[in-house]
Structures are given as structure tokens and as C-alpha cells.
Design brief:
Strand content: over 45%
Order of helices and strands: EEEHEEHEE
Largest sheet: 5 strands, mixed, barrel
Oligomer: single chain
């Protein structure tokens, strides 16, 4: 199976419409933090150049979902490539997008959404299967018996 998943922020967006196919190119920036041997926080930032083709690429470009700074989760396939440059063989990877999901427009929006969810009585990473106010199952979820107490 050839699949990658990236979560990062959009750094650059470009779109090119040709006679044969539409091409959306995104630069996605990811970062991770770690502590070094002296217990100082360090950050590693990576840049990924991703491409999407076809009608979906055009629809995403024309929508308001792909803008610089937005937090996205992208999924797709990775392809190896090589080419000659100045007599040397250069190796790299192409990231071909199949799915794009908007997670948050800005960092502040992401925090506000998380705080709103937590302030409504929910804990992190737990989405209840049942709407406890109406005691009905949400679409696509099995019905549950009536719950007398709020879940913990």
C-alpha cells in the first residue's frame, strides 16, 4: 500500500489550468518539537510540495478552503523520481494528493473550536455516540439505551 498522511499549514498555493488537466500545487509546512540533551526545546520544520490533478483540484482552488496559513490534513500517494541536473542525478519524491481536509483556518480558530467543545462538557478526543439531551442515536451510529447520568 502506498499512502501518506500529512497535517500541516499551507505555505504556498498555485493553480495551472491546461487543455488536458487542471493542476493544484500546495506547499505544506509541518513541524515537530523535541527536547535536546540540555532540555531545551527545538523545532524541526519540513516542507512538502504536493500536487492534485483534475476537476477536484480546480474546485479546491476556487473554494475558500485552501489559503496560506490554513491547517490541512492531506492524504495521497508518494512517488519517487530522479532527473539529471548539471551532470548529477537528483532524487526526490512527488506527493500526489487524493484527499484534502480543512482542520482550521488559523491557530486561534483551532483553539477556539477546541475550547468551545471542551466547555460544552466534553473531554478531549471523545465524541459521544448518543445525543444525551434527546436520547437519540446520531446518524450512522447504533441506538443506545437511555443514560441516566452524564458520561464521564
Amino acid at each position: 500500500m502506498n499512502k501518506f498522511i500529512l497535517t500541516g499549514r499551507v505555505a504556498k498555493v498555485s493553480f495551472k489550468a491546461t487543455e488536458k488537466v487542471d493542476v493544484l500545487s500546495l506547499q505544506i509546512i509541518t513541524s515537530e518539537s523535541y527536547k535536546d540533551a540540555q532540555s531545551n526545546w527545538k523545532e524541526i520544520t519540513d516542507s512538502f510540495f504536493c500536487t492534485m490533478f483534475g476537476k477536484r483540484a480546480k474546485a479546491l482552488y476556487e473554494s475558500a478552503f485552501i489559503k496560506k496559513g490554513y491547517l490541512l490534513e492531506v492524504q495521497g500517494k508518494m512517488r519517487s523520481k530522479s532527473y539529471e541536473k548539471d551532470g548529477l542525478t537528483v532524487y526526490g519524491h512527488d506527493f500526489i494528493l487524493e484527499d484534502v481536509q480543512l482542520l482550521a483556518r488559523t491557530f486561534d480558530e483551532m483553539l477556539a473550536s477546541r475550547n468551545k467543545y471542551k466547555s460544552s462538557g466534553h473531554s478531549d478526543n471523545i465524541i459521544p455516540d448518543t445525543d444525551y439531551k434527546t436520547e437519540t442515536a446520531r446518524p450512522g451510529r447504533p441506538s443506545k439505551p437511555v443514560v441516566e447520568e452524564e458520561p464521564f
